[in-house]
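Dear Dr. V.,

Thank you for agreeing to look over these. As mentioned in my earlier message, I'm a first-year student in the group and I'm still getting used to reading structure tokens, so any feedback on how I've presented them would be very welcome. I ran two proteins. I've put each sequence directly above its structure. The first is here:
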Amino acid sequence: MILPIVAYGDPVLRKKAVDVTQDYTDLKEVLSNMWETMYNASGVGLAAPQVGLPIRVFLVDTAPFSEDPDFSPEEQKELEGFKKAFINAQIIEETGKEWSFNEGCLSIPNVREDVVRPENVTIEYLDENFVKHQETYSGLIARVIQHEYDHIEGVLFTDKISSLKKRLIKNKLTNISKGKTNVDYRMRFPEAKGRR
């Protein structure tokens, strides 16, 4: 089932998400709905808070980047095959040279900004079968993981840009929170102030 994506301004996007246990109700269905929602919105990642659930779950599928000619054939192959669910993830360390990349977010439609992040990430997480993994990723896969991980920590990519850029996009963000934006996927907008 395609779920509405929560828009910028909703308090759930600012909450630090909580761990889920193996007996979490309908986790398989939640994951299935999140995959369907992400693909419907042409996303490469989606975190549970973005569908209104304050739990430590996010998905990544970097296949859409695999056709980008800026990447080498090896990188394209790696991006094409990377699809994972991360449950109760914890970043162990971020290392390497910091690099900039233009990021966007399904909860903040039509806003893209350059964000600087470290090149590598080591992350510990559970897969859909609650098997524990600790893995290190680099490049674009690391970046998508870092972006989605931020969501379960209550952090948005707009928190990582300069105060000047924040001022320049302030009106766009306000409009998104009021539902004044054009998207081709379902969204849920926070109540406008003064409305009941």
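The second protein is here, in the same arrangement:
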Amino acid sequence: MASDSGKVVLITGAARGIGLATAHLMAAEGWRVALLDRDTDALDEAITQFDGQALKLLHDVSDPQAAPQAIRACTDHFGQLDALVNNAGVADFGPIEETDFARWRRVMETNLDGVFLMTQAAIPALKQTKGAIVNIASISGLRASTLRVAYGTSKAAVIQLTKQQAAELGEYGIRANAVCPGPVRTKLAMAVHTQDIIDAYHDAIPLNRYGSEQEIGEVIAFLCSARASYVTGQVIASDGGFDSTGVGLPSLRS
């Protein structure tokens, strides 16, 4: 199997969480990494963790001008682009009747438009390397849940966009796959999830726990790698079995 050492990956939303964990995993496997985020302070701190080996890209993926600038900076610096991980996203939860159009658009412009814009800009570079695209969707894109009308819909659209990318870009050797994380033990989740919510998730997930950022990153890194060279158009739920259980009745479990 071909080695991925020396290949280049650009990860959006890379200043923290799943994006940063993925960057560390791929750097350890020999990838050269470009970290893109719009949070200046968090990105500055994240970059220091790579001993000057990572490229910092301060951009907002919802800005149509940002994508070509970011891709150009990456290819100018590294000379190529082998994988794009579209991880940047916003989580804004609220009832349907309280989600006005401005709120809807704030979610869509990052979660969906950003994936579209970054991928469009990256296609010429990915053609040269027969590269990979990994879009981070969500379990909320596979199953409906309360308070997620904008978020869940945006992630469902990312899943369909991934399939379109796979269908249309395969002739160039470009692969496109989506990862749908289930509940993940991030700092943000732990800050807003009450003990009742945590207990309910544990009951509903067959593995009886939240996932970790690194566990999601392992799936992303695999899909970017040469080990997944014949995998495209796939939607992989990394969710501890959460999607497989449907609604579930915890009281019936032993």
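From my reading of the second output: The mean pLDDT is 93. The two ends are 43 Å apart (CA to CA). Does that match how you would interpret it?

Kind regards,
E.
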